[in-house]
Amino acid sequence: xxxxxxxxxxxxxxxxxxxxxxxxxxxxxxxxxxxxxxxxxxxxxxxxxxxxxxxxxxxxxxxxxxxxxxxxxxxxxxxxxxxxxxxxxxx
Length: 91
What we know:
CATH architecture: 2-Layer Sandwich
CATH class: Alpha Beta
Radius of gyration: 12 Å
Helix content: 25-40%
């Protein structure tokens, strides 16, 4: 079953290739959606796909970018919308 996760990552997550790493991880796992920087220094992402893969991507985002430090990840889960064809970095 596909789900949608809206996530806000907080910590040292801007200027450290966090968005690029998030895109790579999501594409590798076949998860759709987007990621973008927020004005407050956090990073917002939407992930959509099979539940186990979405959870895996969120976990990998916390640890896969060696220069980043994720202090918290606020996650809001809901039903998938089917609105995304791939994964993109938004500006």
